[in-house]
Sequence to fold (219 residues):
Amino acid sequence: MRAPSVKPQYGPTLSELLIPRWRTASVGLRSLVLAVAVVVLAGAVAFEILRTRNTVFAHSGPPVSFSLNYAEPLHAVKTPAGAYMRVEARTSAGRLREWFEVDPLKLGSDTGQTSGSLPVYATNYIAGLGRRVRDFSLQSETKTRVNLVAGYTMTYSGRFDGQLMYGRIVLLVPTLTGQPNGVILNMGIRPSASLDYSPDQVASADVLERPFRSFRFGS
Fold:
């Protein structure tokens, strides 16, 4: 395919300027230019690998074992009392931007079918959120699956650090019957004014998707 022509007033092109100089350059100069290009390319690749490198978190029970991974800008912070782990990201001013936390879930000894006990637990959990979160508004609640594990999810909006945040709660247990212990995946993000984003989209196309989708029960 021929390159598009350039009007005379806009020429010559960069390639027209560089190609003659490259052809007349000494072997040593060519080698130096190529070496610099290789170093720059290798540096860019290394930076991208470091930027997207996963950090793995694993928790060995009892009562449950699980693992997940996350990447920057999320980083580990001091684990809140009673929680298994927490990672978050903040702005340069120190305001909360995203968080992902794993908390213990205990349904009790007479749980029966998980499909029936999780919605009951969710009702009480939602009531607690309504008391703790300023301007709390429930968006949705429904059954869900995370890597083939059945669970229950709720999404909501509310104010944290004085700013609007969208949150998602996911209740998970390893087995469908007779399992009283599981986890609560508690996550949230500050919505962007440039995106058409709703609470139902939390962890579907943002930095929280990695820890959410990588969550696995077991050691």
Observations:
- Helices lie at 14-24, 27-52, 114-132, 209-214.
- Strands lie at 55-59, 66-70, 75-76, 85-90, 96-106, 134-146, 149-160, 163-172, 181-189, 216-217.
- The two ends are 56 Å apart (CA to CA).
